[in-house]
Amino acid sequence: MKKIDENFYRLLHPKVVFLLTSISKEGVPNVMACAWATPVSEEPPMIIVCVAKEHYTAELILETAEFAINIPTKDMEKAIWLCGSKSGREVDKFKRANLEIIPSTKIKAPLIKGCASYIECKLHQTIDAGECYAFLGNVVYVGIDERYFKKGVWQGDTIPMHLGGKRIVYFRDEKKS
């Protein structure tokens, strides 16, 4: 057995890549690519998302107490890399990545047109988790494009999964239902 190293968390990859959207109190939207999220409760529906404390997104979530998870499709891979490598403090990532904003249903943070699914959250609790904040969110609305998600499972190989580092893979279900 190998001792614990700084990449231990990759044992839990691949993970669904998502575009985490937030908004400033002044109404300026922001987006970042992320893969650290998991459901933590079905009743009530809750999700936890981990974001580095120094990231602009963390600042905005603390400021407005809301966020949205946008699950992109395969054709959005370039936008994923751009949104994961630039800071919203310095760059309008929506414009640079050619992402179109659409309104959310229950929160002020925007959604991204063309995504396979959306999960809107209101902040329930912030947990200090080392170099990250773990944002526990109450799920207040979910939108699903049924071309990509049917009968409770992802369809085909269109959902990006972060394998680690600069690698994205796509799950392929060989057993077509």
Q: Roughly how many Å apart are the termini?
A: 39 Å
Give me the secondary-structure category: mainly beta
What is the helical fraction, as a range of percent? 10-25%
Sequence stretches where pLDDT stays below 50 over 5 or more residues:
none
Named at the architecture level, the CATH assignment is Roll
Calculate Rg over CA atoms: 16 Å
Oligomer: single chain
What is the domain tally?
1
CATH topology: Pnp Oxidase, Chain A
Largest sheet: 7 strands, antiparallel
Number of helices: 3
Quick one: overall form? globular
Strand content: 35-45%
CATH class: Mainly Beta
Topology as a string of helices (H) and strands (E): EEEEEHEHHEEEEEEEE
Q: Reading side by side through the largest sheet, how are the strands ordered?
A: 3-2-6-9-10-5-4
Mean pLDDT: 90
Number of strands: 14
CATH homologous superfamily? Answer: Electron Transport, Fmn-binding Protein, Chain A
